[in-house]
């Protein structure tokens, strides 16, 4: 019997279940578990949720260049699960072919990226305000880096890292694998959306709902187009605006949030 070394090896369905659990356990599934523990801790604390603070992009050290080192290392190692997911997908076919991670349609990717960012971002601000009024969200601090020259570049890198990690793992990888397992379309979309909402739960219930809705939109977009790059573009834009905007604009501008 001869083996065709040029033919990709398609993972068996039985092997995909532990594979998915391992990839998620090393990445955003782990974040979802910690987020669940955090929200329980917040709800059982001696202060209401609305009086607590959730800080994204905190400083890691009072020594600026040590802080920069920690920030860059955190960004790099957060992307390792992405490399793992792409490697595992490459056993079946080229990840670029599976997820649309190529440059064949740059204007499509950029155009839809900006459109999705606007469609998600503007209603998202309204949801943040409603959640704040209802007291079901913690006070969100998108950036807490010191005033140093590298703060804005690091925030942009952090935004891109979030986008690449979440969209490739939670949408591209997970949707592809669950469809291979034979899951119905509705359950695939629900799983991706609930996972996205779950690892944002530490911010409060408004963040869970908002991100779950975003997850539905993004999963359906990927299923229809088979391209994850517009989602990466949209997510990067949303986070850059949130992180850099909060860092540079006067803080009293955000008092209504």
UniProtKB/TrEMBL annotation:
A GO BP annotation: proteolysis
Source organism (scientific name): Asanoa ishikariensis
This protein's UniProt keywords: Hydrolase, Membrane, Protease, Transmembrane, Transmembrane helix
Transmembrane segments: 20-41, 68-89, 110-130, 205-223, 228-249
CAAX prenyl protease 2/Lysostaphin resistance protein A-like domain mapped to chain residues: 149-240
Protein name: CAAX protease self-immunity
Signal peptide: none
GO MF annotations, alphabetized: endopeptidase activity
Matches recorded under InterPro entries: Rce1/LyrA-like_dom
């Amino acid at each position: 019997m001869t083996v065709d070394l040029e033919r990709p090896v398609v993972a068996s369905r039985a092997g995909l279940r532990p594979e998915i659990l391992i990839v998620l356990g090393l990445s955003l599934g782990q974040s979802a578990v910690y987020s669940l523990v955090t929200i329980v801790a917040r709800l059982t604390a001696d202060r209401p949720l609305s009086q607590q603070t959730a800080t994204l992009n905190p400083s890691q050290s009072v020594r600026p260049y040590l802080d920069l080192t920690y920030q860059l290392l955190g960004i790099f190692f957060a992307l390792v699960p992405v490399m793992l997911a792409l490697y595992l997908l490459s056993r079946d076919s080229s990840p670029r072919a599976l997820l649309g991670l190529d440059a064949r349609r740059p204007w499509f990717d950029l155009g839809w990226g900006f459109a999705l960012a606007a469609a998600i971002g503007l209603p998202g601000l309204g949801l943040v305000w409603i959640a704040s009024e209802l007291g079901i969200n913690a006070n969100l601090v998108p950036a807490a880096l010191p005033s140093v020259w590298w703060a804005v570049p690091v925030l942009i890198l952090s935004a891109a890292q979030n986008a690449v990690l979440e969209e490739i793992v939670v949408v591209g990888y997970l949707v592809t694998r669950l469809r291979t397992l034979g899951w119905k379309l509705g359950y695939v979309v629900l799983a991706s959306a609930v996972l996205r909402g779950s690892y944002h739960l530490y911010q409060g219930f408004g963040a869970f709902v908002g991100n779950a809705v975003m997850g539905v939109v993004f999963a359906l977009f990927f299923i229809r187009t088979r391209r994850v790059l517009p989602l990466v573009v949209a997510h990067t834009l949303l986070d850059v605006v949130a992180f850099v905007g909060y860092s540079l604009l006067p803080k009293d501008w955000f008092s209504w949030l």
